[in-house]
Amino acid sequence: MYKTFKDFLGAIPINDIICRIQTEVHCSAPAAKELLDKFLNEVWRYIDGDSLEDKVLLSAISASTELQEKTKTLVRTDWESKNKSLLAKAQEELNTLNAELKSTTASLTEVRETLNRTKSEEERLADIIAEKEKLAENVEKAVAERIRKAQENAADFIANMAFVSGQQGNAAVAKVPVAAPYENAITTYHTYSAFEDLNDLDAHHCWADAINTAAFELGEAGVAEQYKGGLAAFLCAAYIEKQPILLIGPNATDIVQAFSAAISARKYGLLCCEGSFANHIITEIGANGEDIVIIKNLFSSSWMNRLPDILSHEDIFYLATHPFAEDIQVEPKSLYGFILPLFTEFFVDKKAVGKYYGGYFADDFSPYSPPKGCA
To answer: Are strands 340-343 and 245-248 parallel, antiparallel or unpaired?
Structure first.
């Protein structure tokens, strides 16, 4: 309304009104213009709030707190009624900003908590690394001192070689696997004793424990992940039934080493079929309580003919090895009537580690018993 009235005053035809004032008042043009200017000045005073009444009203409002509040309320109510849509839009935007602020605050809190946890973990790992470095330094010094003393006295060096894998090494560092002495065999038949410190081995309370340990060790022997569980169960079943097995192909030696370590705490016999057959050697099998015997170089002619004599011990689980599948593409001398072949190339996918921890049967081990109704 205010703007409309100002636009109306600005559009008044000044010249026409001056002429009409001259006619009505009977005065000159300058006098008529002066009268018009005086009138317009008064009008503009009212419009711009500069009139005497406005000043009186402003003075009254300023002097009364109650009148000020009423005036503010009237102005606010009038403004809100004219700007409802603008207020609603502003409130919606404010609500959106508050929601974003709340979400951002929550995210910031979560990030700070994560950062604090990461810093704590970094500090913990730094302490562990420092401790391990100190431990490694101490072990290195101890080894260097042992070597120095051993160099001074060869006999003392031989007597103290056990520190490499003995109890002191196990106490100072984490459990370290020891390679089986299979490849170092130099006698026709030799028995390897069980590992003395059983604390470093896995205790089997049932066949499920034994199969799990065997599966882990077979993985270390190069057996593929998807086959190691099945192969472990198969070898354990053959062990229970004392069914002789001939492993043929890559990693065959490592597989029998890994299985014997997992089942018998690395206690087994090694029969090297070299030279002429010797019957007295066969009588030594099982004499030290070993129930796993690994047969090496079975395809030596003088020993192949005496395979029934070699496998005559019914309480021994025999594991023979041969590296080349091509050598037995045709069954040699009815071999498979005595021993079951197993070709490793189908389940080996990597190089063997060559060192195995092993396991043993605990005192409370539950032996296998076939389900009722099974022969």
So the answer is: parallel
Residue the block writes with tokens 């000044």: 14
Question: H/E/C letters for each residue in the chain?
Answer: CHHHHHHHHHCCCHHHHHHHHHHHHCCCHHHHHHHHHHHHHHHHHHHCCCCHHHHHHHHHHHHCHHHHHHHHHHHHHHHHHHCHHHHHHHHHHHHHHHHHHHHHHHHHHHHHHHHHHHHHHHHHHHHHHHHHHHHHHHHHHHHHHHHHHHHHCHHHHHHCHHHHCCHHHHHHCCCCCECCCHHHCCCCEEEECCCCCHHHCEEECCHHHHHHHHHHHHHHCCECHHHHHHHHHHHHHHHHHCCCEEEECCCHHHHHHHHHHHHHCCCEEEEECCCCCCHHHHHCCCCCCCCEEEEECCCCHHHHCCHHHHCCCCCCEEEEEECCHHHHCCCCCCHHHCCEEEEHHHCECCCCCCCECCEEECCCCCCCCCCCCCC
Euclidean distance between CA atoms 295 and 242, whole angstroms: 14
- The angle formed by the CA atoms of residues 154, 156 and 162, to the nearest 5 degrees, is 110
pLDDT band at 155 (very low <50, low <70, confident <90, very high): very low
Q: Rounded CA gap, 81 and 36, in Å?
A: 39
> With a threshold of 0.85, does the pTM exceed it?
no
Q: Is the predicted pLDDT of residue 154 greater than 50, yes or no?
A: no
Rounded-to-integer distance, Cα 210 and Cα 336, Å:
27
Cβ-Cβ contacts under 8 Å for 287 (sequence gap 6 or more)? 191
Task: Output the six-digit token pair for 302.
Answer: 């003088």
Asked if residues 178 and 195 have their Cβ atoms less than 8 Å apart, the reply is: yes
Residue in the structure block whose two tokens are 């606010």: 76
pLDDT at residue 172, as a whole number = 34
Q: Which residue has the higher pLDDT, 274 or 8?
A: 274
Over residues 114-118, the mean pLDDT reads 89
